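Justification of resources, computational component.

The compute hours requested in this renewal are based largely on the per-chain cost of generating structure records like the one below. Each record pairs the submitted sequence with a full structure-token output. That output is archived, and it is also reused by downstream analysis tasks.
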Amino acid sequence: MKFVSPIRFLSLFPLFVATVLHATSTNLLPGLIFHEGSENLTGKLIFLLQRDYAIETNWEGAASVYEFDLQTKRLNKIINSPVGQFGISPEGNAFCTIFWKGKPGMGKDTNVFVYSESSKSSFWTNVESSPQGMFVADNRVYLKLQGYNFSSAGYYLVTNGNPTETKLIEYNFEKNQLRTEDFSVQWQNHESSGRNFKAFDGRYVFFEGKDAPIDGLTLVSSPCDFGDVKDQDPKGEKTKVLHRFSTLSTFSSTHELLQLSPDRHFALVRSIEPISHRKFSEWPGSTTTFYLIDVSTGKTRVLLENKTETTTHSSLWNGFINWVQTTE
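The structure output for this chain reads:
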């Protein structure tokens, strides 16, 4: 890996915006920059990197799945994958990509690719329409399909007289079996866990403001969950401000609370900055900055910068990373 010189600390922004620290940086891949700090971070970052965004045709090697161990500081390519909607198990040992074959088109992403770390095996299948939701858990992939009583690209045709319906599908990839049943409990558990930003100390982390609790500028910590804070702490006396992001770029960038670290001591916030065109394409793109916020002290620094689209042919798919625990 190539080491570059440390980036100086940024000065305070106006309006009392807290300082964001930059640490020694390492190029994990061209355009993908990791900033190392003094924290004892655990777990690993997993992401899907598209090889060449200028190539429209999708194929089984159009992208690669990488993992970066935050303790050993080692980057490892796990496997090649098609480009598409990417999901990962909470343990980080199974990955799924929903993808289209050939050139992209409305409703063509009906194919499923799964890789299991435990068995070192790949699995392939397809479903009748484009999944409108997906998650991976317990060696299963759960898919949500939507149908209407008229033909529409990406949706299946409902023929039982109802105007619309939803199918919940379980894909047991180890047995290569698709099953349609009532998996609403699994979906409820998944959706509730995705909104549960409860830190190690029992306090909840969320953004304040009109786009709360996931998006915003002011990240806070509270003993009350976001849904209860107005009733239980109406004056905000128990609420602690962790970090205020700059208002200077609110018209061009967004700040999103992605998740808490596996040990729940840190919050991971993503900021996406649109760019007018990519380095090797006239299509618009984006750069992404991932911030690390200590949920106890509010100390904030840059953890990872994604500038792949401004410097290379590659692209961090959907500008997204997954922080998972390390399994032995």
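The longest strand covers residues 266-275. Residues 224 and 233 are 8 Å apart (CA to CA).
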